[in-house]
Amino acid sequence: MKRTSCAALAGLVLLAGCTTAPDGTQRVSKAGMGAGAGAVIGGIAGAVLDKNDARGVPLGAAIGAAVGGGIGYMFDRQEQAFEQALVVEQQQHVAEVERVRDDLLKITLQNEVMFDFDSATIKPGFQPTLNKLAGVLVKYDRSNATIVGHTDSTGADSYNQQLSLRRAQAVQQALAGAGVPSWRMTAEGRGESQPIADNSTEAGRQLNRRVEILVAPTS
């Protein structure tokens, strides 16, 4: 039993060593949030040492914090990678990278640069941008993506729902074609149900016509 327990603990130590690194940026607090969650896992792992060993849970919690911090650090790096990959698109205001929560990134893409009016076929000129996104997703393979299509309020609600879904599926297929495993992605259509701007103006409707890619660490 002790030999098995030591082997299990050693595995956790190796995992922590592989995922933990000095940050050196101002994103330490975000990684610290991951460390807090990791400490919970580590508390359970600490019990592997010995139920009667008072050092078990504290030591396991410390290991878990290292693991959690490593996951947080990895996700911070992924955010930076998206920002660097889409620096031109962000300057042109056709894409935005936003940290919604410590464990959720949102990449917003404007429909006008991706699709023609009333179409779910991606314009050839936008494929390089999707290739950049795919490259980051492939590199950081401990994350999944939910692709969500949105429309403005012009037209029938049922039609907008279907159009938004078809556009999300088109982005999913393009990312899959660029190397992202399909099982790591899901596509959803929200139609006109979640506007972020006033649909009574053209500027507002343009903002509402978008595709969002929500990236979260794998559980």
UniProtKB/TrEMBL annotation:
Classification via Pfam families: Gly-zipper_Omp, OmpA
Keywords from the named record: Cell outer membrane, Membrane, Signal, Transmembrane, Transmembrane helix
Gene3D superfamilies found in the cross-reference section: OmpA-like domain
SUPFAM superfamilies recorded: OmpA-like
Family matches, as PROSITE patterns: OMPA_2 (PS51123), PROKAR_LIPOPROTEIN (PS51257)
Taxonomic superkingdom: Bacteria
Protein name (Swiss-Prot/TrEMBL): OmpA family protein
Organism annotation: Marinimicrococcus flavescens
